[in-house]
Structure formats: C-alpha cells, structure tokens
C-alpha cells in the first residue's frame, strides 16, 4: 500500500463518516439462481448469484443484511458477473468472475462458520493493482461507519500499555441487528465503506498473484467484540470498556458507571472472571471483580462497575478478563470538568488546528460543546466541502473559524491571479477571519524559495483582497521557527503582504521552558534535536514579528505528543504539565491564537486507528477511544485561568532553578532542579519506558515560604485540582517541584527576590 502523508493526501469522493448510506431494500428470500452455504449452527448464510457473482450475507434469522456486489482489481476496473459458481461443501463455495482483462483472473472463496463468514478474493494478472483493490457492497436498510479494531499490549521493554491495530472494520447497524466487515487494512477515503471498501491485497502464499479477505461477523455486540471474533489470529478473549457519557467527561463528581463487554472468540465455551482497577491522578485505587461467568462460543457477556470521581478529577481505568489460561485487557479514562462561562469572547486565543470531526461516538454538537467547555473559540480551517463541522454550524455554536489551504508541495499555481481570486472567494464564502496561506513549506517544499512564495502566492492574494480585505492573511505555518526561511521571506518583502506570522512550535523531550544554547541548526542546515524546543523558538518568533511591523503571532499547530514509551515524547503526566506551561508562555508573549493540533488521537487518513510507532497518531487531547487525556484538563485549566488575565512579569528567587510567572490574578511556580531534559536516561534506541500517569516523576522537592495576600492560598495542579494552604502571619509554606502549579492568593511582585 502506498505511503499516505497527512500533508499530501487527496480525499476521495466518498465520505468515510458515520452516517453511512441507507441502501434500497433487497429481497430477503433465496434467489432461484443462487448457491448457498450455511454454518452447521445456522448462524450465518451466504448466497452467491450464479449469473452476477454477487454474494448475499444473511444472519441467523435469515434476514438479508449485505450484498458483496463486485470486486475492483484496479482503479475503476471491476468484475462483470460470474463465469462459474461452485458449491464445494455445505460451508464453502467458489465464485469465478468475468473480468475486463483476459489476462486477469478473480476468484472468491466463500466459507461460512460459527457466527463468522470469510470471503477471500484471489487475484492474478498483470493488470491487477493490489493497492487499489475494492470490495463493492450494498447495505440493506442499515448504516455503516469505519471503526478499526485495536488491542491493548504490555510492552516487553517496560513502560505503559499501548494499543496496536488489528484490522480495519466497517460496522453496519440495523434496527434489530449488527454486522461487522473486517479487512486487513483500509484507507476509508479510497472507498468510503458505503458502496465500496478499500481492501488492498498482499502477495499470495504461492507467489502467484495477490489475495485480500473480508471476514463478516453478525450479531448484537460491540464493534470491538465482533472485531476480536473476526481476527485471523486466534484471540480467545477480549474486553471493551465504555461509559454512556460523551467523551467520558462529566460536569460533576460522584459515582460513575463503566460498562464492560467480554467476548469469547473461541468455538468452545469459556468460564471467565473480570477484574478492574481505577487509579486517580494521585494514585488512589478503586477496584473490584465480577464472575465467574460461562460465555458461550463467539458470544458476549455484559457487565458494569462503578468508579467514584472527585469535583475535578481523572481516573485511569483498566479491566482484565481471564479464564485461567487466556487473558485480555482494556483501558479507558474518566474525568470531571465543571461548566465555566468564558468572558474573553473573540479575544480568546484558544482553538483547534485539525478538523473537529469524529467518525464514531459523540456527534458534531457534542464535539462543539466539548471544545467550548475547554475554552476553544477558534477552528483553524473550515470551508464548504471540508471534513468536520460546517462553517455555518460553527457560527451557530459561537466558534470562530479560519481557512488553511494552498499547500504548494508540487509548486506554485500556474495562474496565480485566478487561483488567488478563487481562494479569496472560498474564504469569504466560508466566513473566515484569517487565511493561512500554505502549510510547513520550509519542511514540505524546501525547493520553493520564500521569494517565489511571496511573489507567486501572497502578493496575488493581497491583490485579490483589494483595499478593504474581508479577512487577515497569515504566513504558511512554519515547521518550527525557521530563522533562515524568515530572513529570506523578509528580504523578499513578505512581511508587507501578511498580517500574521504562523508557526508550529514543535517540541522534543524538553520541558516547555527549555531554551537550549544555539546553534540549533548544523553547518549543513540540518536541524538538530534542540531545534524542536518551545520557549526558545517562541522568543525568536516574538522578536521577529516585533521587528517587522508588530504582526500578530499564531501558533497554528501546538501539541504535546504522548507517543507511548518513546524518549522523544511526553509521558501523559508530562504532557499535561507542558500543555499548561505552553499556554501560559503563549500569553506571556502576546500570542494572538493557539490552535491545538488535534482534538483526538489519530490522523485524518486513518481515523481511530492505533499506531504506536508513528508520532502523528498521538497529538490529541483525547485518546483513541475518545476519552480524556490529562492534557484535556490541563488545557481547560490554562484557558480558564487565562480568560481575561493579564501578564505582569517574572517572579525572581534567590535560587535560579526556582521559576515563576506572575499574572494579575494568579502566579505559576515550579522548579528545574531535576533538569530541563525529559526521559534523559534513555538508551541508544527509541524506546523509553514511560511511567504510569498517576506516578509523581519529580524527585526534587523545594520548600518555600512566600508572602500571602489572603488567609487561604489556593494551589491548583496542572489538571485543576485544588489544595488549600492556610497562611500564618501573612506568609504561607509551599512545596515546589518540576510540575508547574498555580497559586491564587500570594502577594508577589516582579521587583523582589524571594529567598529559597
């Protein structure tokens, strides 16, 4: 399958969204010209039309649910009926297809098993293109959504558990039943799952051609459970966790119900027991168990248990199912975040960079509500035809939106005036407040000079806008603060063509306040790891915009990646701490807007898939199952504190490793006695065992006594949990470490030096 870059991907014409297509009803009775196979228990039946080769899928009640209509073996080239249909046994039949190429053969091997059917297409011939294989389908009175299977793993090298992908699943829902179609892998936009499923082939075992396979599982069960049954590798047990609350985020604390579904994927019954554990931010434990229960072959057992949360809280929940020989486990998170009325309005600097779209679970209204709950006011790009919430709906939710388009990886437009007029028209029609012209050109288009970009893109846009521009223009979002690119941009007169500098403050395994010594770039122009720091690059960006007309500054892709067990990325706990500091520093440097890279883990081309080896899948504020990371609460904590807050200046201590930022309504204090480099003890490889998020990673504790303006000083950690401290004689004793904490009620100034 070809490599699919998130920056060069061209969307297909069929949407992969959750609504699906309501197909015309087809008759459920057997056709006269069909051959059928059924498993001995009668749980699934497949019927192949001897003329067309279409394969109908019927459930245990004999109801027709799906037709596999044809097979595409290359782009726009598909089978044209059947040359032969042969019933090999009561449970297996073969379909030989008519093809458009005499040198291409396509055969389907159809097998019915217990609550599980398998259709394997065997393809040979020089005109076949395995990366373009599609399975044609027609869903009968149902809807479809893309919902890939992921399973949890323990890391043999130590660290936190992580998910890996185990197949691409298309889940069909009917009024009275469900059906899952699983393929090895799929890019939803190549087929959409509505009338066709992208199912790239692999080399046949004998080296003659290619094969691809669909496994079908009917039954009223969770997608995860059906996916475990559908797996090619035998996995006897599986468990899925979820809560009946959008994003697992409640407005108040108390007892919350977690649902668990255990699946027995084996062909024999198994007696199982379920045990669960929930740990909160400080490591407090709640636990319990259920069972034993006998689960019949390829069926499920539903259970539930309660977890109690505080007023501002997060719980990390794990459930384990075992029968004494086989074991499976799953994880999810629960959180409490109370409602809040933000007052900044259009002056808010908080937003979302990637399309706010979810293929499963909460819908657009609930997604917009979550964005507003955590303080987001902006969406980086929204226009007619873009995925996500349409511009008009964003307006209805009170969310402001911009447009980011015009990636020039393959060169500038050949007719820049026409292109610019079209782009201006698109932005105006979308109601965009800003247009971000291109994306990371310093990284994706290194041969495109800043001068050519200014002349061939920015100036035409500015000319098309005229004397009364309908929106403001940003530079392309630079990948890191690229000083060489900006210098050439200024020499070409670029600053006069834009209203804002946009850049992406990438960050490696450094705390957000680390500004490493320069140079960050080698003699050959290659970026050193230190190039990817937050505060150092932000200071340079602030200085550059100030020296060139005082342009606005936007961080249009900010992030704190939680790729598991990698030394280059944040742990879940460090990510939350760095989210808080990054947003604080954005206010310190008068950043106009910070749009967080993604709301949820995953990428647009492979949504909801798990990939522990690709950092792109781990930038979200939500984990893959749409439950909250600690980063989500940290984002909300920062947004609420900074809502209309004013930065006053630095707080100075006698110990230079004690740090402080003073705002008019609070202070942020932390230390760097444990250093500025995270995961510093890593070995030669990429692996670093991340500690669990409820473990305190900062060994050095620093006591301080500071002046207090109130009798009680409120301490808030990065996720917003509050601890009161009683002052005596106008002073209060506190303990600081590497985690930034907010203090309300201190009497600090920017002129005094406080002893440590």
Automatic annotation (TrEMBL):
Keyword annotations from UniProtKB, A to Z: Signal
InterPro entries documented for this protein: GH (IPR017853), TAT_signal (IPR006311)
Membrane-spanning parts: none
Superkingdom of source: Bacteria
Signal peptide per UniProt: 1-32
Signal keyword on record: yes
Name of the featured protein: Asl1-like glycosyl hydrolase catalytic domain-containing protein
Source species: Jiangella anatolica
């Amino acid at each position: 399958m070809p490599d699919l870059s998130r920056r060069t991907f061209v969307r297909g014409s069929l949407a992969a969204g959750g609504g699906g297509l309501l197909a015309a009803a087809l008759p459920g009775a057997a056709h006269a010209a069909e051959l059928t196979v059924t498993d001995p228990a009668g749980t699934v039946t497949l019927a192949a039309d001897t003329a067309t080769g279409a394969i109908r899928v019927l459930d245990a009640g004999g109801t027709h649910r799906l037709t596999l209509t044809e097979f595409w073996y290359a782009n726009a080239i598909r089978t044209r009926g059947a040359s032969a249909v042969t019933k090999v046994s009561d449970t297996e039949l073969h379909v030989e297809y008519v093809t458009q190429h005499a040198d291409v053969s396509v055969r389907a091997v159809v097998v019915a098993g217990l609550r599980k059917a398998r259709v394997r297409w065997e393809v040979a011939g020089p005109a076949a293109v395995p990366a373009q294989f599609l399975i044609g389908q027609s869903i009968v009175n149902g809807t479809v959504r893309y919902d890939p299977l992921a399973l949890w793993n323990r890391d043999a090298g130590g660290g936190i558990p992580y998910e890996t992908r185990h197949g691409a699943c298309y889940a069909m829902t009917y009024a009275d039943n469900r059906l899952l179609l699983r393929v090895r892998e799929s890019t939803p936009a190549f087929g959409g799952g509505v009338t066709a499923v992208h199912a790239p082939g692999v080399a046949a075992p004998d080296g003659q051609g290619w094969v691809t396979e669909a496994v079908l599982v009917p039954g009223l069960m969770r997608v995860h459970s059906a996916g475990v049954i559908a797996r090619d590798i035998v996995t006897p047990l599986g468990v899925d966790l979820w809560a009946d609350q959008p994003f697992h985020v409640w407005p108040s604390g108390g007892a919350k119900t977690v649902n668990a579904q255990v699946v027995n994927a084996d062909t024999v019954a198994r007696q199982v027991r379920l045990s669960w554990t929930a740990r909160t931010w400080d490591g407090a434990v709640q636990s319990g168990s259920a069972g034993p229960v006998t689960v019949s072959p390829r069926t499920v057992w539903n259970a539930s248990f309660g977890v109690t949360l505080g007023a501002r809280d997060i719980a990390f929940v794990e459930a384990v199912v075992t029968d004494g020989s086989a074991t499976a486990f799953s994880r999810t998170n629960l959180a409490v975040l109370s409602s809040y009325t933000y007052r900044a309005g259009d002056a808010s600097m908080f937003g979302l960079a990637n399309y706010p779209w979810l293929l499963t679970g909460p819908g657009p209204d609930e997604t917009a509500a979550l964005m507003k709950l955590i303080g987001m006011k902006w969406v980086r790009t929204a226009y007619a035809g873009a995925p996500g919430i349409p511009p008009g709906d964003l307006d209805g939710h009170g969310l402001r939106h911009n447009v980011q388009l015009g990636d020039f990886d393959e060169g500038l437009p050949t007719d820049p005036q026409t292109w610019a007029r079209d782009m201006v028209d698109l932005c105006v029609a979308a109601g965009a407040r800003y247009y971000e012209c291109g994306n990371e050109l310093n990284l994706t288009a290194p041969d495109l000079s800043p001068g050519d970009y200014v002349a061939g893109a920015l100036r035409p846009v500015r000319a098309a806008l005229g004397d009364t521009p309908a929106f403001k223009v940003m530079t392309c979002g630079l990948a890191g603060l690229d000083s060489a690119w900006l210098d050439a941009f200024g020499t070409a007169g670029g600053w006069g063509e834009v209203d804002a500098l946009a850049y992406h403050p990438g960050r490696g395994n450094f705390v957000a306040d680390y500004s490493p010594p320069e140079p960050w770039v080698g003699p050959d122009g290659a970026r050193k790891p230190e190039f990817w720091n937050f505060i150092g690059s932000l200071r340079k960006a602030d200085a550059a915009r100030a020296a060139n007309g005082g342009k606005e500054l936007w961080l249009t892709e900010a992030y704190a990646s939680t790729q598991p067990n990698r030394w280059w990325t944040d742990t879940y706990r460090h990510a939350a701490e760095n989210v808080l500091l990054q947003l604080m520093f954005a206010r310190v440097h008068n950043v106009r807007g910070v749009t967080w890279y993604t709301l949820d883990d995953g990428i647009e081309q492979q949504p909801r898939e798990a990939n522990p080896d690709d950092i792109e899948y781990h930038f979200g504020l939500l984990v893959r199952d749409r439950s909250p990371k600690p980063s989500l609460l940290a984002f909300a904590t920062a947004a609420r504190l900074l809502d209309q807050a004013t930065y006053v200046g630095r707080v100075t201590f006698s110990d230079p490793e004690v740090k402080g930022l003073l705002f008019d309504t609070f202070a942020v204090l932390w230390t760097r006695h444990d250093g500025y480099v995270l995961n510093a003890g890593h070995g030669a490889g990429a692996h670093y065992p991340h500690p669990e998020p409820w473990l305190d990673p900062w060994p050095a504790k620093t006591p301080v006594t500071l002046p207090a303006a109130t009798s009680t000083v409120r301490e808030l950690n990065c996720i917003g949990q509050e601890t009161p401290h009683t002052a005596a004689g106008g002073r209060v004793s506190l303990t600081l470490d590497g985690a930034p904490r907010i203090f309300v009620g201190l009497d600090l100034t920017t002129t005094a030096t406080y002893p440590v």
